[in-house]
Q: What sequence folds into this?
């Protein structure tokens, strides 16, 4: 009797262990993507007042006003700062090694080297290069003081912001101190929390507050139509900082290959296999349009196609127009097709 | 296990009068206790087919159980929520409160000997968090020198597959036994809308085990225990479809609970005094980790989420408690109990800058004075020292503070078959480490703790009346009746609430601002009918009703808001002693329930009734190795979800409240080897 019972018991134990487990989740079928060529107008506005954030997979667009922030702080594990150079040609940063807050005067600004972020997004091309140093896995701020020129539209008393970075806690926050040029000591010491759902958090020095700039969480947008600053050669080849309107990519999610002298229809998945993709933030950039001096309007660079690779798809895209039906500039039209 | 049984006629009827060991060294019969004690025995738990402590308590009057998809089970006693209810295992506090609640669904029933519920403030003996009462889970102790093996398999129609085994092995040394147990509980999850990916009841896999060493000496018995519990819960998001792919998020919650305890109790003499002593030293650890991954539902590829979306919570509790019950030899009427209760808690989480701790040390005295055989008067006092709040004692350090004396007075008056109880007790709840040091600041949140918080203070008054009568034994048929009715009133001041202090920065901070009044009444009637024969059936019926009124005032300037809760229960049991067969019906009615959310908003739950049926019998019972069979159906009326505003706070399910995974047939087989 006991033996039978033991056998029955062992059988039940084995059954319970081997049948009661979390079942693997069945895979979903691939959505049908043969939607052909899509197109959309992105209404930046005649004065380029809007930014437009777009996601190819959901075809969702979000819009917000440009220029509401001064300082961007990266939410990645590696700290990084950025300025909103698109606000104006003078909007830039000067760095002072180890200077105390009170020692920076309007005279010292004249000798300073003013910089702005290269829109390619590379860390070594930032106006705040070497702002942090990695000590045994922990990022700490270097001993620099920065002055940010908010632009000539501001009075001198509120034009220049002196900034020190005090602390960075990975995944948590930045702690900064700042004041205006004539402040001997920092007058504001905010702790700016990181938002893991965004690429950057943004700060405004006049309102002394964190402001919202990315209306979509980073996994939910691919490209943004915006205003930014780039060094552009003039007719004589001399480089000038120039505020321009173009397209930046979401480098956490998207890479881009630019194809020239090829028709849109000729680009297919095979083409995508033979090109190299770049994660440069301004790989699409602004130069898909050119200014026709004769017609006095922007025209599209002919036979330029972009291949856009997201985490889930490959898309071919071209720009069709920069004007709306009423002939107003600032309304770029884009056409695209999902290849995979 | 210390059990006493009353010597009246009910004893002859085998209606046990269980002993409560929570407030006494020796154990005191529930019928004679001055406190309002309710004991749920292992036998009752077994008959219910309950798999965890939450399922047991769901069927008790006066207790409200709530479910949260991520935080687990919440509890409310006497209208006061979980943070005011102290959960203990063998008298040692359990660590790991989430949103104020201990998830008691993480306490399996296989090792439970009995659950003791004591309503009303028990702060004199148990310190903080016991304003609403305590729930003390007493685990099984083996009978020394006897080998015993149990194995139990439980299967049900809501995808539960549970397996428990336990062993008691006598050691060579006399009067010592080694106890081992292990178990695995698997719940496959339940989704009422199969088109969605999100489970309404999350799949869980639990592993647990423990060992105990029990030894009895001349004067003392020592019990050493160590246990570990592990739970893996999966919370899946709904699928997100777009033109290119389908994605979903899997949030896994890993919970581990560990505890170790050394308990000693015994009796010795000093002069003409007899002293019963009990010492309990325990460590209780809690660790919860969640990991979020993004899953490509087409390829199955999973990507870990940003590290900031992971949270780890660690909580440790050290407790040292001692009771000394002093009585004069041969004069058992009057006793005095002295004791100490020391707690040290450490909490670390991503939402507190660094690990924080709090220490609470109390000394207490309780007298029992019986001026005559009818009246018992039991005054108690506790003096308390805390490291975080109260009046500093020394000017040199702020870490030793004296908090107000906590008094209690309980009386019992007994005449014939009737018994009255009247009590007053003061209680307190120390601010939790989370409330003191919480820091959750990001783009969407600005929530901060408050180091200036004071303890919540409660005043409680209770009155009860009990009547027991056995009708004369006529033709070998006996009817026993027990009627129990009680009323209570609680006033809680300095209630800690999360309040918005600054609109411009959306600053939320914990402050002592609120007040709560709760009052209620209860009536329980137990009927037992049997004939004086082993081969006859015994019928036991319990009918109960509860009314609880809870009123809350968010601040001095706001209005009081109050709600009523009505509950009812009906249990029926038929048992046949000779064949070890019994059948039970458990019915529980919950009336329209309203309450408060943390943000001051209210929630409402529509009325519902839960009905369970179980049948127990012994099969293959021809030796010392019986197999016990239990079959039944839980939730016969198939109550699953209720529409309306849910009470799960920010984790609630969009206006849908989960009540039960649904109607489920179940089968349980218990193999016993002795």
A:
């Amino acid at each position: 009797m006991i033996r039978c019972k033991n056998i029955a018991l062992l059988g039940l134990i084995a059954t319970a262990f081997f049948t009661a487990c979390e079942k693997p989740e069945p895979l979903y079928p691939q959505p049908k993507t043969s939607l052909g060529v899509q197109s959309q107008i992105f209404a930046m506005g005649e004065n380029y007042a809007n930014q437009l954030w777009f996601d190819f997979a959901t075809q969702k667009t979000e819009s917000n006003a440009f220029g509401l922030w001064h300082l961007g702080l990266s939410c990645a594990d590696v700290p990084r700062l950025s300025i909103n150079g698109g606000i104006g040609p003078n909007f830039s940063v000067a760095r002072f090694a180890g200077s105390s807050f009170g020692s920076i005067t309007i005279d010292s600004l004249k000798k300073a080297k003013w910089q702005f972020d290269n829109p390619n997004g590379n860390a070594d091309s930032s106006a705040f290069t070497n702002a942090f140093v990695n000590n045994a896995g922990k990022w700490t701020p270097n001993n620099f003081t920065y002055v940010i020129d908010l632009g000539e539209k501001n009075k001198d008393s509120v034009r220049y912001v002196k900034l020190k970075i005090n602390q960075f806690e990975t995944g948590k926050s930045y702690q900064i101190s700042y004041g205006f040029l004539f402040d001997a000591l920092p007058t504001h010491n905010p702790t700016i929390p990181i938002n893991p759902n965004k690429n950057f958090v943004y700060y405004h020095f006049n309102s002394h507050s964190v402001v919202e700039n990315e209306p979509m969480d980073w996994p939910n947008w691919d490209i943004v139509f915006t205003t930014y600053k780039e060094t552009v050669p003039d007719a004589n080849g001399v480089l000038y900082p120039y505020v321009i309107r173009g397209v930046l990519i979401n480098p956490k999610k998207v890479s881009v290959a630019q194809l020239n002298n090829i028709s849109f229809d000729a680009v297919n998945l095979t083409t995508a296999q033979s090109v190299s993709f770049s994660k440069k933030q301004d790989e699409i950039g602004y130069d898909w349009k050119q200014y026709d001096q004769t017609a006095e309007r922007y025209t599209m660079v002919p036979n330029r196609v972009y291949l856009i690779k997201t985490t889930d798809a490959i898309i071919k895209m071209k720009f069709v127009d920069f004007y709306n039906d009423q002939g107003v500039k600032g309304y770029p039209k884009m056409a695209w097709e999902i290849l995979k | 296990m210390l059990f006493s049984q009353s010597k009246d006629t009910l004893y002859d009827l085998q209606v046990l009068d269980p002993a409560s060991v929570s407030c006494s060294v020796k154990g005191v019969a529930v019928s004679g206790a001055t406190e309002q004690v309710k004991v749920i025995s292992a036998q009752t738990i077994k008959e219910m087919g309950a798999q965890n402590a939450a399922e047991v308590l769901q069927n008790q009057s006066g207790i409200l159980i709530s479910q949260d998809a991520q935080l687990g089970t919440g509890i409310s006693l006497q209208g006061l929520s979980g943070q005011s209810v102290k959960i203990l295992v063998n008298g040692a506090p359990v660590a790991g409160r989430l949103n104020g609640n201990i998830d008691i669904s993480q306490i399996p029933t296989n090792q439970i000997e009995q659950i003791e519920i004591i309503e009303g403030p028990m702060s004199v003996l148990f310190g903080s968090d016991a304003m609403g009462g305590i729930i003390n889970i007493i685990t099984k102790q083996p009978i020394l020198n006897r080998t015993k093996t149990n194995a139990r398999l439980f299967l049900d129609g809501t995808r539960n597959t549970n397996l428990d085994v336990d062993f008691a092995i006598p050691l060579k040394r006399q009067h010592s036994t080694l106890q081992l147990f292990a178990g695995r509980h698997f719940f496959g999850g339940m989704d009422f809308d199969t088109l969605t990916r999100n489970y309404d009841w999350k799949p869980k896999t639990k592993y647990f085990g423990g060992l105990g060493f029990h030894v009895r000496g001349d004067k003392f018995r020592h019990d050493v225990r160590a246990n570990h519990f592990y739970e893996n819960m999966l919370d899946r998001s709904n699928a997100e479809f777009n033109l290119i792919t389908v994605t979903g998020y899997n949030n896994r919650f890993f919970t581990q609970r560990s505890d170790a305890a050394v308990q000693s109790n015994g009796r010795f003499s000093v002069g003409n005094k007899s002293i019963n002593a009990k010492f309990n030293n325990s460590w209780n650890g809690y660790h919860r980790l969640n990991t979020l991954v993004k899953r490509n539902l087409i390829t199955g590829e999973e990507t870990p989420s940003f590290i900031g979306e992971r949270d780890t919570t660690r909580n440790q509790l050290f407790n040292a408690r001692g009771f000394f019950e002093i009585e004069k030899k041969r004069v058992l009427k009057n006793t005095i109990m002295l004791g100490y209760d020391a707690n040290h808690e450490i909490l670390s989480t991503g939402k507190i800058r660094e690990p924080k701790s709090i220490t609470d040390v109390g000394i207490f005295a309780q007298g029992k004075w019986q001026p005559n055989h009818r009246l018992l008067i039991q005054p108690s006092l506790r003096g308390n020292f805390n490291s975080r709040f109260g009046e500093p004692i020394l000017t040199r350090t702020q870490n030793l503070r004296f908090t107000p004396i906590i008094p209690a007075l309980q009386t019992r008056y007994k005449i014939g078959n009737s018994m009255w109880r009247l009590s007053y007790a003061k209680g307190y709840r120390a601010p939790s480490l989370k409330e003191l040091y919480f820091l959750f600041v990001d783009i969407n949140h600005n929530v901060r703790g408050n180091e200036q918080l004071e303890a919540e203070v409660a005043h409680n008054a209770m009155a009860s009346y009990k009547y027991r009568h056995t009708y004369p034994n006529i033709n070998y048929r006996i009817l026993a009746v027990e009627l129990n009715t009680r009323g209570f009133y609680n006033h809680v001041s300095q209630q800690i609430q999360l309040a918005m202090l600054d609109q411009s920065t959306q600053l939320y901070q914990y402050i002592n601002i609120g007040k709560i009044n709760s009052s209620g009444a209860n009536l329980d009637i137990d009927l037992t009918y049997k004939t004086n024969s082993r081969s006859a059936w015994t019928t036991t019926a319990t009918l109960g009703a509860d009314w609880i009124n809870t009123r809350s005032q968010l601040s001095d300037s706001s209005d009081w808001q109050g709600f009523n809760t009505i509950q009812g229960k009906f249990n029926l049991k038929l048992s046949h002693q000779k064949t070890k067969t019994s059948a039970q019906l458990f019915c529980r009615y919950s009336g329209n329930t309203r309450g408060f959310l943390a943000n001051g908003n209210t929630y409402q739950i529509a009325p519902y009734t839960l009905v369970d049926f179980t049948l127990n019998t012994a099969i293959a019972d021809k030796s010392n190795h019986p197999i016990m069979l239990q079959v039944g159906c839980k939730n016969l009326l198939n109550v699953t979800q209720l529409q309306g505003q849910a009470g799960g706070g920010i984790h609630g399910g969009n206006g849908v409240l989960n009540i039960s995974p649904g109607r489920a047939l179940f089968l349980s087989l218990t193999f016993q080897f002795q």
User: Anything to note?
Assistant: The radius of gyration of chain B is 25 Å. The CA atoms of residues 307 and 555 of chain B lie 38 Å apart.
